[in-house]
Amino acid sequence: MLPKFSYVRPNTLENSISQLQAEGAALHAGGTDLLGCLREKIIHSEILVSISGLNELSGIRETAGGELRIGALTTITEIGESQLIKEKYPGLALAAAEVASPQLRNQGTIGGNLCQKPRCWYYRGEFDCLRKGGDKCFALNGENQFHAIFGHDFICAITHPSDTAPILVALDAEVLVTGPQGERTIVVADLHVLPADNVQAETVLDRGEIITHIRIPPPPRGLYTSYRKIRARQSWDFALAGAALALTMEGGRVSRAAVVLSGAAPIPWRSREAEQALTGKPLSGETIAAAAQAAVADAKPLRANDYKIAMFRGMLEEELHKARTAA
Questions:
Q1: Which residues of the chain have pLDDT under 70?
Q2: Does pTM top 0.70 for this prediction?
Q3: Between helices 285-296 and 307-326, what is the axis angle to 10°?
């Protein structure tokens, strides 16, 4: 059952930020994750501040300089179906199409997808876990078959649930943020927080701050992007293993590589090791095998999720071979 709360719908961004300063206020956009968090007592809020009526935070447009600007209230469906995104950044369109179910994609927003809460069954269940202020992560020695193999530092083993965040990291995207202290820009790669830095936070956003837009730089010549997601249920589920690729090809070689994993860590997990194995080399079978192996070399699996190592390695080999064929 949902708790009682007040609902306000400001008509300006400034008023929204002001309303969020109230004790117990929470931001409402699409609401697909928020309402579940309220019901599960993950978020305790007495006031929901809805920004759903701020039309200036919606839409997709290309600037004169070739940059793509996406409003934070743009729905996942709009992103997945955008012809402009399909042409310039097909990996982002693929990632959007893999999010949840059609109903949730119609309602959910890109800003919300970046900021959603983790889906660990201990965190979402009736367990006083470390992320909720308790004294332990139950997943470390419990049912952890879907949990992290990177970045947990044996502190908290959630996996970041977003499908769009990994490809946005790979594309060097930024989020534009407005809050009580004014405006700032955050690289998406720096938006999310590891448990070792703050086990009770998912993002670096301060109280009252709102993501207003996502900004993606113009694609370089020879850019190849993709997103692949493996899940237990094809119809609707979060990633067991996923990978976003952004490879810039030049003269038959990879001049720049970005490899970002989903379903792997508490944040979108950038594999610098795989990128190093690819950069400056042709996409030969030998290079592909070396990059896939490098991506999982430092994995720290838990009791029941070491299968993910082979899953990530095999998936990356398949995706890099696809990139080789397309190059």
A1: 235
A2: yes
A3: 150
